[in-house]
Amino acid sequence: MLRLALRNLFESKVRLLVSVGGVALAFTLVLALDAIFAGSERQVTAYIEQSEADVVVSQAGVRNMHMASSSIPRSLVPRIEGIPGVESVTPILYVTNMLVLGEERSLAYVIGLPEAAEAGKPREIVKGKAVPSEGEAVIDQGVAEKSGAGLGDEVKILGETFEIAGLSRGTASLTNSVSFIALEDFSHLTGDGQTVSFILVKASKGVSPGELASEIEMEINGVTAQTGVAFAERERGVIRDMGTDIIAVMNFIGFLTGLAVMALTVYLAALARRKEYGILKALGAGNRRLYATVLAQAVFSVVLGFALGLILTLALGELVPLLGVNLSMEVSGRSLIKVAAMSLLIGGLSAILPVRQIAGLDPAVVFRRAG
Predict the structure, then answer these.
(1) Structurally, how many domains does the chain consist of?
(2) What does the pLDDT average to over 93-103?
(3) For 258-304, how does the pLDDT look when each residue is reduced to its tens digit (9 = 90+)?
(4) Which of 63, 104, 112, 146 is the most interior residue, by most CB within 10 Å?
(5) Same domain for 131 and 10
(6) Does residue 39 fall inside a structural domain?
């Protein structure tokens, strides 16, 4: 029966191309969308994940940076420094603002760094320095190249002009980038030198970040302390929640597209083989064996479509960065499991119509019509 299913599938090359191609495009739609959102999650959380902060201290109740605001007294910095298990603390200021380079304007997370920052710096510097001095800024290399800017050129941040002193890599996404200025410049521009947004804490060797976060919350009132890992996960959760509805709708469209293409293909293949199935039934083949043939044909087609869709998605992931777009695509295991489950469901459902045809097939009627 498996041989019959394969013969039915590969007999018509055009039909095979249409069916497998249609399913592959449907799966590519689902996989690519998931990959874009997974990549976006990673890009948005890249700053915290690369900050080397073991613990992030914020205003009470604030557990993420994206679409959030935190303000804590600057006077807490020495108090946190004195807690056993703390190796270093780095206070930072943070706001979302426009970055202006010539005629180009783009959204940026602006980070104010102290001169002696131990954490919160860009991980990879292409040119220049990682920590800006007063009057200087560090911006993403891709954003700078898009405007034709480089070291020594001017950039406007928070309405003030800064000299580009460093170019970082991996600090931009499709929607925004991360820029760095001196903490004192940030305080001066906002007119508030008494508060900071977050305090990034590095734990001493052998100290558990989770235990240190709990200790900070016990010692300092009015703050929330959590591990850098937990903070990044909350950031991912915010992005995930924002895209859940879009992903659900597009996944449903992809599912319906794949189901429609497969159902029509398998149905037409079974219809074209009605006489052959009639002969098999006349020779004693039971409905169960014939059902298995149709189901196997559907599953084979879906598996081929799934493999082709995955190849197309991976190819897109390699191609997109070459186009100069700050878009990262990351195929996750969760997405593969979801699409694999969808493929099995599509294979099963697409076999329902032809199976119903076979169930009611009367060999005598088939031969009479053929005659």
Answers:
(1) 2
(2) 90
(3) 767 767 766 666 666 666 666 666 666 666 776 777 777 777 777 88
(4) 112
(5) no
(6) yes
Task: Give every CB contact of residue 127 below 8 A, 6+ residues apart in sequence.
Answer: 141, 150, 151, 166, 167
User: Domain range holding 355?
Assistant: 2-44+240-370
List Cβ neighbours of 3 (8 Å cut-off, separation of 6 or more): none
94 in Cβ contact with 64 (< 8 Å):
no
What is the 3 state secondary structure string of 206-257? CCCHHHHHHHHHHHCCCEEEEEHHHHHHHHHHHHHHHHHHHHHHHHHHHHHH
Q: How many CB atoms lie within 10 A of CB 156?
A: 16
C-beta separation of 70 from 197 below 8 A: yes
Residues 39-96 pLDDT 10s: 777 777 788 888 889 999 999 999 888 878 899 999 999 999 999 999 999 999 999 8
Collapse the DSSP code of 281 into the 3-class scheme (helix H, G, I; strand E, B; otherwise coil) and give the result. Answer: helix
